[in-house]
Amino acid sequence: MISSKLPRTFILAFSVAAGARISAASLGVFESQNDVGATKHAGWAQWDASADAHTVSGGGANMWFTNDAFHFVWKRVSGDVALAADISFLGEGGDPHRKACLLVRQSLDADSAYADAAIHGDGLTSLQYRADNNQRTYEIQSGVSGPKRLRIEKRGRYVSMSIAGNNGELRPAGGSFRLELNEPFYVGLGVCSHNNERIETAVFKNVRLMEGRPPGKAATQLHCTLETVPLASRDRRVVWTTTNHIEAPNWSRDGASLFFNGRGRMYRIPVAGGEPTPIDTGVAIRCNNDHGLSPDGSTLVISDQSQGDRKSRIYTLSAAGGTPRRITDAGPSYWHGWSPDGRTLAYCAERNGAFDIYTIPVEGGAETRLTTAEGLDDGPDYSPDGQWIYFNSDRTGTMQIWRMHPDGSQQEAVTRDEFNNWFPHPSPDGRWLVFVSYENAVKGHPENKDVSLRVMPLGGGKIETLAKLFGGQGTLNVPSWSPDSRRVAFVSYQLIPAAE
Questions:
Q1: What mean pLDDT comes out for the span 355-379?
Q2: 25 pLDDT higher than 70
Q3: CATH number for the domain harbouring residue 313
Q4: What b/e readout covers 59-98, taking b as 16+ CB neighbours within 10 angstroms?
Q5: Looking at residue 219, what is its pLDDT?
Q6: Is the domain of 201 the same as that of 226?
Q7: Which of 35, 64, 298, 344 is 20 to 30 A removed from 244 (C-alpha atoms)?
Q8: DSSP symbols for 413-457
Q9: What is the pLDDT of residue 61?
């Protein structure tokens, strides 16, 4: 939790006389205003009730890294909150990274935990956040530039952003993150010039502040977001968002596309964004989230439940689409890994009531059982040198990451912590291992849970968090590294009241 404390710096500034407090009535729905952090020039704000417009001017070097400098118009609130506005900059020629934003913030300290929905001078639109005081800032970049209207929303432990085009209809921008704030906290409007020598001005029109949840238990609608996150910056980027249920991205070998499943079918979409293209999988029309590509990228492997008994079997077909060829006769069988030499598939299968790890030649034939321990063994994926298969197992009581040689020998634990860890995937360069972690109390790998994407050196070492999100089943079931090992693709989810 964020520690609640009184601000170290509280400098009031406004257009009439610096240091004099202005009345709440002159700021519309907000209580007050002040500069946050080290600003060379005092900012100010005013509200035009007849135009329903807040004009906010601010300086400051940045809102990023571990501290911020900007002008803030605010109100203290508790509980769930949403703030929306039409945003535009006044004047030309400012820094392309100047920001006009909608914020939720723990305190008025420069290093406070916060989140903002920000429009930059160059049109970049992103949801930015600092999870705790004096930590670095991260962001989720939207694929939409310079939208007409923005909304930031804090619901429970999650913060998200919605955007609107010229028609004014707000739609989820995709992606959300966990941010725990003590009550009360601050909500409001902010402007940062990204140049401490000058002031920038933005107009926020049709500002709407909504506090509390709707009465009763509102029906929710699922929103799914296909995202990527680089290991270096950990700033997430939205590829595509939809109200259809999608899962489990795989990265194409040329780095240009992502493959994923949804509603029993397979799709391909450019990493840069756009609309997905369906892949013809013939009679296999109940594809689940266990699929991937051959080492050379020419062949797609799927796990499909179109058989009469609705048990998953493994098939291969051209990555461009075509007639599927069945590889496993027995079901259920769920693919997870392809050996680097292209000859062998690794998968989880239930045989005689036990879920274990198996391998089979890529052409089909006799399967080989690799694990026999009590409990569930799942998620096998090969190291790029072919010397190890990484998998998850609950044989010790909690789900942890293990590894073994491809013949099943030398089975050993890789993680030993308080989380339930699933679906390990070694990076193509052999340096990293990414996996999804549930809280200890969660059994299995269900959907719609608080999860973390975590990464560690493949040879062992410190585990770090790439992202905290709402997801689980479908987020990271199968290999999703970019070919250059710099990024990971995943799916996050939101349950949003249907009325919004």
A1: 98
A2: no
A3: 2.120.10.30
A4: bbbbbbeebbbbbbbbbebeeebbbbbbbebeeeebbebb
A5: 86
A6: no
A7: 298
A8: ES--SSSEEEEEEE-TTSSEEEEEEE-TT--S--SSEEEEEEEEE
A9: 97
We report the CATH number of the domain holding residue 53 as 2.60.120.200
Same-domain check for residues 172 and 226: no
Q: Does one domain contain both 161 and 42?
A: yes
Does the residue 13 lie in any domain?
Answer: no
pLDDT at 21 over 50: no
Token representation of residue 370: 């690799």
Read off the amino acid at residue 15. Answer: S
Could you say which DSSP state residue 41 is in? Answer: S
Please indicate, yes or no, whether residues 224 and 203 belong to a single structural domain of this protein. Answer: no
Per residue in 66-83, pLDDT (tens digit) is 999 999 999 999 999 999
DSSP 357-396: EEEEETT----EE----SS-EEEEEE-TTSS-EEEEE-TT
Beta bridge partners of 222: 495
Task: For 3-12, write each residue's pLDDT tens digit.
Answer: 443 333 333 3
Please report the pLDDT score of residue 3 as a whole number.
42
Copy the structure tokens of residue 437: 């972690």
Query: Do 101 and 123 sit in the same domain of this protein?
Result: yes
The percent of residues above 70 in pLDDT, for the chain, comes to 94
pTM for the model: 0.92
DSSP-assigned beta bridge partners for residue 455: 434, 464
- Rounded-to-integer distance, Cα 352 and Cα 446, Å: 23
Output b/e per residue, 304-336; b: 16+ Cβ within 10 A: bbbeeeeebbbbbbebebeebeebbeebbbbbb
CA pair distance 333, 306, nearest whole angstrom:
13
Q: Parallel, antiparallel, or unpaired: how do β-strands 32-36 and 220-230 relate?
A: unpaired
Q: What is the CA radius of gyration of the chain?
A: 25
Q: Structural domain tally of the chain? A: 2
Supply the range of the domain harboring residue 264: 220-497
Rounded distance between C-alpha atoms, residue 314 and residue 61, angstroms: 55
